[in-house]
Amino acid sequence: MSELPSIAFAGIGLMGLRMCRRLLAAGYPLTVWNRSPEKCAPLTEAGARQARSPADLCDAADIVLLCLADTAVVREVVFGAGGIIEGARAGQLLVDHSSLEPAATRSMATELEARSGMRWVDAPVSGGTAGAEAGSLAIMAGGLREDVERVRPVLAHLGQRLTHMGDVGAGQVTKACNQMIVACNALVIAEVVALAERSGVDASLIAPALAGGFADSKPLQILAPQMANSEFEPVKWHVRTLLKDLDTAVQLSREEGSTTPMTGLASQLMRLHGSQGHLDHDPSTLVDMYRKRGQ
Questions:
Q1: Which of 141, 17, 51, 88 is nearest to 150 (CA)?
Q2: For 256-273, what is each residue's pLDDT tens digit?
Q3: Domain 3-hydroxyisobutyrate dehydrogenase-like NAD-binding, which positions (predicted)?
């Protein structure tokens, strides 16, 4: 049996913690780092090594995985003081599960390889914390085919599907498309639940009533019951994450000369909801925006 590659992981948040637990359970030697070091405790207790800095992640790692908040954070972790660039070397791969701007991803990948020889695979994910927990994420990857195939056995422990979408940046374009669908879906589900309530219909029956029909979707089955029952905790994802990804999609559409009016409206509605104190809340809270307008 061949020796498992050594893995490093930066970003121990809602998704990263669950992904790392699966890698440890699969037997991978794992080194972890997070800006708030205490978040690594559950993983170090389970056998992971904690790095002192992002650069330290590269000491013994064959593959470095990232799952960070946004483009600015990824740039800082990779190229900032004590960043990955200071420890990176040829033959290593950086696999970024974050949701970033495609153009910035291409630029950073080019710089990282030019300065260190380390290559980049953008591999954003979809499926939320439940998917991370179960290892059933959908993973969309951009990069050289040989690099994607090299990480496929590792990512098989995290996702049910890994699709090579094209060159570096293609994974991020695909994730933007994914988030356009998810966010617009979440907003219309909130409208539906609020309308059903105002009309005297038991909104908790919407999801089972529509199951299997053309209106059915995972967001409907997850969000509609939470919205109908005002079950907003525990937070499984954040309004600010969806807003950031919608802004990325709108920016991408401008760069490519594409028309995305639904996504533009969705970004403004999401921004309005976030401005009312909901940025760190679950998107199921979107229903309250429509409830208030119906009162």
A1: 141
A2: 999 999 999 999 999 999
A3: 169-289
Strands (E), the chain: 7-10, 30-33, 49-50, 63-66, 93-96, 119-122, 125-126, 137-142, 159-166
Report DSSP state, residue 57: G
CA–CA dist 131, 224 (Å, integer):
18
Neighbouring C-alpha atoms within 13 Å toward the C-beta of 158 = 29
Q: Report which of 178, 173, 193, 180 is spatially closest to residue 270, judged by C-alpha positions.
A: 180
- The 10 Å Cβ neighbour count of residue 131 is 21
Six token digits for residue 232: 């907003």
Mean local confidence (pLDDT), 152-165: 98
What per-residue confidence (pLDDT) applies to 276? 95
- Which pLDDT band holds residue 60 (cuts at 50, 70, 90)? confident
As annotated, the active-site residues are 175
Paired with 50 in beta bridges are 32
Given a cut of 80, whether residue 67 has pLDDT beyond it is yes
Amino acid at 251: Q
Contact between residue 40 and residue 33 where contact means Cβ atoms under 8 Å apart: yes
Point out which residues pair with 163 in neighbouring strands: 140
